[in-house]
Amino acid sequence: xxxxxxxxxxxxxxxxxxxxxxxxxxxxxxxxxxxxxxxxxxxxxxxxxxxxxxxxxxxxxxxxxxxxxxxxxxxxxxxxxxxxxxxxxxxxxxxxxxxxxxxxxxxxxxxxxxxxxxxxxxxxxxxxxxxxxxxxxxxxxxxxxxxxxxxxxxxxxxxxxxxxxxxxxxx
Length: 171
What we know:
Blueprint: E1 6-8, E2 14-16, E3 20-21, E4 33-34, E5 37-41, E6 45-49, E7 56-57, E8 63-68, E9 71-81, E10 89-93, E11 107-109, E12 112-114, E13 122-128, E14 134-141, E15 147-148, E16 160-169
């Protein structure tokens, strides 16, 4: 019918006008169709909620994502950042896609930091809220309830670093 459905690019990659059926033999099933794949750079920031809110943004190529269907995986690398004057509670701002409304939160583990205070009885994470592009910091304390991660734990120097990788679902 004259409509291009498959194209082999000059670099050898293959493009399809619709999704690719995976793992289902020759019988079509929409549930097994790969129709959404994207890689990119996210414009994310570390900021605050409930207080003064200076922010620091990811440098080029230091906040990257891969989206497959509704699953988003993000890698964040902030090096030598300045949060002087920040108040309130720590927040990741500008996730690359809106968080889905799954009836719960996605927990985003913190892998490594520099010039961020850690108490021996605390674990720090970020958690998402549905229909937003932000994740709020939380501190888990031994035998106590979760509390918001205070920006005062962040040294406010010019050497703050944060490294983390996480996955969440989007709408």
